[in-house]
Every structure is written in C-alpha cells, then in structure tokens.
Amino acid sequence: MKKIPLALSLLISALTWVQAHPFPKPTKRVLFLGNSITYAGNYVSAIEAYLITHHPKQHYEFINVGLPSETVSGLSEPNHAGGRFPRPDLHERLSRVLAQTRPDVVFACYGMNDGIYMPLDEERFKAYREGMKWLHSELEKANAKRIIFLTPPVHDDPTLGTQGYNLTLDAYSTWLLAQKDSLRWEVADIHFPMTRYLDEKRKTDPAFQLAKDGVHPGELGHWLMAKPVLLYLGETVDSAQSIQEALADKSQGEAILRLVNQRQIVMKNAWLNATGHKRPEMAPGPPMVEARRTYSMIEQQIRAELRKKKAQ
C-alpha cells in the first residue's frame, strides 16, 4: 500500500476538521453582539441547539450580550424612549465585554437601530460604516479567531411594508456584504432572505407578518435569522421551515432546545450585569457565580439528553 504524502495527509485532516466542526480549532467561546433582537435570543438558541445536537462531541459556550436599543453608530434620535434615556452605544461597553468573555468566535448583528428608523442619509450611513469598521478592528485586536457580521433583519413598516425604512437597511446590508470582497470580512446575509420571504408571503396573504411591531421578529422570524447563519457555517438545513423541523432527526432535539433556552435567559442577564452597560430598565441579572452554577447544572442535563440518544 502506498503511503500518503505528509502534505496531502495534513490537507485531508484539515478538510475533515472543517467538515466536522463549524468553528476553528480550538474554539471554546462564541459571542453574540447586537441589539434587542439579539437580546431576545431565539435565533442564538436555535443555532446553539442545532450545533449541540449535530456536533455532540464539541463543547462551545454561547455568550449572548445583546443589549436592547443599542447602536454601533453611536447615534440616538431625539426623545428616544419618550426622553427617558438615549440609545446605548456599543463603544461604551465593548472593551469590558471582550475583556471578560475572551471570545474565540464573534457574531455581530447591527443596523436595525443605526439608521434611527429614518430614510437613508449619508451622515447616519457614514456613522454606521465607521462603527462597523471600528468593531471589526477591535475584535481583531482581541484575537478573535473568526468574526462573522450579520446583516440586519428585515423591517416591516405598517404602511409601506418593505418599501419604507427597510430600504435604509437594504443599503446598509449591501454595503456590509460588499466588505466580503473589499476587506475580506465574513458576512452572513439574513436581511435579503428575510425580505424576500416576507414579500413572497404578502403576495397571497397581505396581512402576513414576521414581526407584530415591524421590528422584533417572532419565532418564525428568528428561525429565518438562524437558518442563513447555519447554512453559512456549512450545515444542511436548506429545507427546514423551523428549528423544530431542523432538529426532527435528533430524538432529544426538542428537550435540548428547551434547556438551551432556559440557560440563555439566565446567562444573558448575568453577562450584562457582569460587563455593565448604561441602558436603564433592564432586568437585573444574577451574580456570575450563581449563574455559572445554573450553567453547569443545565450543561449536565444537556449531556444526559445526548447520552439518552446514544443509548437508544
């Protein structure tokens, strides 16, 4: 039998790793940055539950530090939140987040709030572009092994549908996607697939909605965010119409998704509490020591579910 050349063997090994693992080796912590949609966390939990069930030998800690109302542009409209507080600015807290979380992989989803829900304007657009470039630079300095930007979700104007503020987000998304070529950034597109889905549904059901308020997607909308990310990571979820359907081939999928959701609710508030922020009216998070105990307990339950599947 001919011996495989070392270079070819290393290449085969590398390709095998890429096919079997969604993140570079060794990845331990996966961070999600964003606004209220990320804070809601359904799409984060969907991605985590899918990767746990389909890559059970891998152990990734998913950290959600999404902060409602936040921008990367540093902008805030007059009388935001009825004048109670201005929009929080990621610039104020990022260094603390990175120092405490020490992420290996970072997903960042900004844009929805950055255009301040107004028509496209060069000054606001420039602030968004500069904010995203600053963010990418800071994540590189923090030695993140992989940085993946997500285009903003679709916006559904109550009167104009996707032809209102969503046109501003079209421009933001187009610019962000262009950085894949110009700056070699990694960008997963959720904006245009969501927009196409919404427009297509409206053809037969004019009352169809992904978000009751036009901004914050429901369960289906969060799946339409998670799905392109999973596809971007090389997962085969092309035909799945929900996270439940994507997990249907795993007997413990539903139980693991439920546990992941429970854990995310505790941990996201604990991380916000630990890293600090200037947004008032947020639920107080538990101390990190207490949250870590809950994390470990639920991790044991998740691993027990995975062992059940193996034993069946």
How would you explain this protein's 3D organization?
- The structure is a single chain.
- The chain has 312 residues and is α/β, with parallel strands linked by helices.
- It has a single domain, classed as 3-Layer(aba) Sandwich (Rossmann fold), CATH 3.40.50.
- 52% of the residues lie in helices and 7% in strands.
- It has helices at 6-20, 36-40, 42-54, 90-101, 122-141, 166-182, 191-204, 219-232, 243-246, 253-275, 288-311, and strands at 29-34, 61-64, 105-109, 146-150, 186-188.
- A five-stranded parallel β-sheet has the order 2-1-3-4-5.
- The radius of gyration is 20 Å and the shape is globular.
| Extended strand count | 5
CATH architecture descriptor: 3-Layer(aba) Sandwich
Number of helices: 11
H/E element order: HEHHEHEHEHEHHHHH
How many structural domains in the coordinates?
Answer: 1
Oligomer: single chain
Give the strand line-up of the largest sheet.
Answer: 2-1-3-4-5
CATH homologous superfamily assignment: SGNH hydrolase
Shape: globular
**Poorly predicted runs:** 6-19
Mean of the pLDDT scores?
A: 93
Q: Roughly what percent helix?
A: 40-55%
> Between the first and last Cα atoms, what is the distance in angstroms?
39 Å
**What fraction of residues sit in β-strands?**
5-15%
Q: Class in CATH?
A: Alpha Beta
What is the CA-based Rg, rounded? 20 Å
The third-level CATH topology is Rossmann fold
Computed structural class:
alpha/beta
Largest sheet entry:
5 strands, parallel
